[in-house]
Amino acid sequence: MDLQNIPSRPIWQDEKDGKIRIIDQRRLPHRLIISELNTVDDVIYAISEMMVRGAPLIGVTGAYGVYLAFAGKEAIKDSREAGRQAERIKSARPTAVNLAWAVDRTLEKAGAAESDRRSSAACGEAAAIAELEAENSRRIGRYGCSLIESIAEKKSGKPVNILTHCNAGRLACIEEGTATAPVYAAHRKGVPVHVWVDETRPLNQGGRLTAWELGAAGVPHTVITDNAGGHLMQKGLVDIVIVGTDRTTYTGDVANKIGTYLKALAARDNNIPFYVALPSSTFDWQISDGVAQIPIEERDPDEVRYMPGFEKTGENLLMPENSPAANYAFDVTPARLVTGFITERGICRAEESAIRELFSKPET
Ligand code: MRU
Q: Domain range for residue 113?
């Protein structure tokens, strides 16, 4: 696919006509489809069908959903109805906490405005959240780069091998990503890096999206099957694991794409640092026990049963027609397996006291 003319962000408000547009990620990297979001229902569909995906991007999309509820001919006037639409948006996907965070924040901003200013207040807030997430990614990149540089110092010119799972890149965020931001920052500084990209069944966000992004940025990478990571770690071919997250408790338990927990176990067994990169919008300050309390999305089993083709899903049945399948989209990695968090505030241990200390200080 021609990499020219690809929008620099996965969601934006078009300067020409004011419409909210997204990159439909379902057919990448083979087809670039741009879609319009005109209604709350469009937003719910885009999130639940994963036209947009990744925790920060789901949040920004949900925020624009609140704006759309207040905009246009059918604009909501009644605050109770606005709350009802916000709840509908929040329930489009259950695991990423960024969605509720961004929707609530936007609703609050709109609610504080005069009734004829609600739509512009909501629109301004959604845009502000997008800018905030872009800045968070840049800061995460700067902090995480130092980890990669310190590994590079010990490798006398050989590339630092980073393993990542799913897509926590610019398509999942607004710019730079979270797990990928330190990689891009290191690459730009001339630090030799190589990324092992887990393909991330069943929807192949790693093989389709992360590989595409890294390739476009000229970052050396290799796509591997989801089960290859442990073997590579045993052979000394992984220096550090960096993943993103959809929801992290204030005690440090991390929900991320299914299979992340197994990578963390393998990393611990092989004494390899396992870092989670996240903006503060992905911390859930209400819950302490990730395994017991984080809602894990279960998606349509057909996503497991069929391998998506270039054009549409449901093309190639992979298993006996009558075999049932289950599709757990996320798992929880307990804090004890996480070496640390790379956040926009800096790096901290995966412990409540360290997390609270980092976020209680004024931002620098
Ligand atoms: O199901 P997805 O593709 O939305 O899952 C995305 C992930 O698991 C990402 O790692 C996570 O959202 C972090 S994105 C910065």
A: 3-132
